Amino acid sequence: MGPLDGVTVVDFTSHLAGPYATKLMADLGARVVKVERPGGDRTRWAKPFLDDRPGIERSGTFQYLNTNKESLVLDLRREGAGDVLLALLQGADLVVSSFTPRQAEHLGMTYEAIRAIADRSMLWITNFGLAGPYRDYSMSDTTLFAMGGEMFSTGLADREPLKYGGTAALLQCGAIASVAGLGAIHAWELHDAAQLVEAPLFNGQLNNVDRRSAAILAFRFSGRIQERPPGPGSGLAGGVYEVADGYVEVTAAGGNYWQRFVAMIDDDALRDPIFASPAAVAIPEAKERCDAVVYPWMLTHTRADIWKKARKVHAMVAPLYDAVDLFNDQNLRDRGFWTEIEHGESGTLPMIGRPYILSETPWEIRRPAPRLGEHTDAILSELGFENQAIASLRADGVVA
Amino acid sequence: MRAQNLPLSDITICDFTAVWAGQTVTMYLADLGANCIKVENPYIWNPMTRAASPRLDEKSANLIAPWMGGHPGSDPGPRPWNNSPAFIHVQRNKKSFTVDSRRPEGLEVVKNLIRKSNLIADNLALGTLARLGLSDDAIRAIRPDIVILHLPAFGLSGQYIEGRGYGAHIDAVAGSTILRGYADSSPVTNTQIFAGDYFAGLHGAVAALAALRHQRKTGQGQVIELAQLEASAQMFPQAALDGAWNGRAASSIGNRSIEGFVPNGVFPCSGTDRWIAISCRDDAEWAALREFMDNPRWATDPELVTAGGRAAAEDEIEARLREFTANRDRDQLFRSLQEVGVTAGPVLNNADVCNDPHLAATGAFRPLPATEDYPAVEWLNPAYRFSESDVGIRSEPALFGQHNDYVYRELLGYNDAEVEEYRRLGHIADRYDDAVINA
Prior knowledge:
- The complex is a heterodimer of chains A (400) and B (439).
- Chain A has 400 residues and is an alpha/beta fold.
- Chain A is built from 17 helices and 12 strands.
- In chain A, helix 2 links the parallel strand 2 and strand 3.
- Chain A starts with 7 loop residues before the first strand and ends in a 5-residue tail after the last helix.
- With 439 residues, chain B is an alpha/beta fold.
- In chain B, 36% of the residues lie in helices and 12% in strands.
- The longest helix of chain B is centred in the middle third of the chain and has 24 residues.
- The interface between A and B is large, with 157 and 167 residues.
- Strand 12 of chain A pairs antiparallel with strand 6 of chain B, so a sheet runs across the interface.
């Protein structure tokens, strides 16, 4: 039994941020009914595909984001959708949506419309909120990261600003929306308070503690602008180093961290008192002498060897992993970071496992991501629709 | 006015968190209404928790990057721990009290606080709480139904248990660092960012919110272990599953899209260091962009109608787009492109964000009054808005030791004589001890 056992979420979200918000709930025991439009969530068409062969049940992105959910296909534009919507909303503890304000108006899915049907809380994940000059603007992971304030200071001073890998910005905002949604569930269960909780992606990025919210306050305080640095690293040693079989990240600035770094390299040349002084950074000759020891050392050691030595002396050094490293890492496997799903069409597949370990109410995969419309009939029956009514809804294209 | 609807109005937190991941977990929970009591020790400087250093002059502060060194008026003053932009904003809605938990009578105070707490949150260096006499078992002996949240960097078991790291090192192992950077350079040119802290902190809040619900329903507590690495590695599922399923190890593609959007990138605008991000998320957006550019000959090649065709000519398209955007005003171009249906966004710096018209119009910021340690400025509100619960900045960021009176007297019920004794013994303080400041 998960800690969110007994919570029912009716989930109208699609793409990345919304489904990540509800995945976090589903994996902790909430029942999440994923209401898909005809044709399904567009993420069913997102790379990577199993064996690189596209197919709506083969997307790794979709499989990851929709574990433990049930799928019901509903065409909100059709007459007759209202009865299904009513029944769904009446059983919900939380409604989650990611329609744009315009789509919501068109589909009758604004919060006013939802409340007129059932007095429930709604978490509404939007690009820019429900008001203001950017309300109807569109967004991508890249434009979100750009406007969030961190891109400007990422990369090198003489080149263009850089984004993050993957779709990190959208998933970050999905996680913050999940926090908001769980807050709504607490308020609903504790105070019977039905309400609208808005989680604009733009605000989610700005609130990222990753230098953004801090840099914004820094500007208010000091007028200083957070810029891209002229080069990587800082101090006598620091930043990403090439090693025998890849790269490692190093932090060695500051007294204690420098001492641990020196203990890791274990070369008396670095124990020269000149290096221990904070002023050493400003002495070009000191930096050259340090590099002359550190670079060859790095290039003659492997990532695993370096990390092992670093851990022993608590040096702030760690290897750069790629996806295959992450998958093959025995320690992560032993700890249970990787798990498996039983996929109806494709058999047993590896899946990214739990982000946390709960001792009494464990994170758990109860079922893989649903096939499109896999649970339409079962859910409708449960909601009291007779077989004939379901058949007629299908015939009319209301459900699928 | 609506404080009765706070989602966590019945929750008290004993907060032993440090740095960002931990301190943001408790910030989210405090924003949602938990009574979050920050445990601080006047005799111990916790690195990266309240400022870069307990003694910081103006010159040094200005040598530190703005997010960390941008203290008010560039002068940290005598109490840098109360005005570091990196850390003061995560203290909103919290209460701060001081105690030296290493001494028996100090530990008693902490135990009394634990007795009143639903959650204890910790990301001090591994083993610190246990050394204080606060192992999980000891904590549960005091309060059997408590939720204990640990946020170690690499986990509480396995080979990496002794590993130490900040966000940058967690990002490295999580597979984040190798996925970013200029596509034509090696990761050696990467500059550090620390999204791992943020993402791990959000996951800590999710796990705690779920466990607190379970506690309220059933009376059962539990221990949550959140290895920041394992939460952070969830940020790149596309790459991770391409590795697990297809054996592919993705590397950086710069500002291009893994979602097949072409073009997708960052382009220069008029002025100094001004940029715009543009994404054509489908063929219709590309057609709109082409039209917006007045259908230049290079863009009307029929091959470019589909994303696949554009991908084959991506270098060329990006070069032409750079020429197109280079003499245009960033903000005008952003608004104009959006009006014709092209996804675009200005690359905002921290000053731009403070002047953004949309943020101003939608109440993203709110003023807080000055204190002795910082001036009256506008602070960023939480990222979400609740229509019926007063989720927001209800009380200003907690200064060091600001709530000693509340915690010792009101919450824990110590009388005047006892409080006086704790003050005399140096537990109750409103600043760090001189030995810490002068270390």
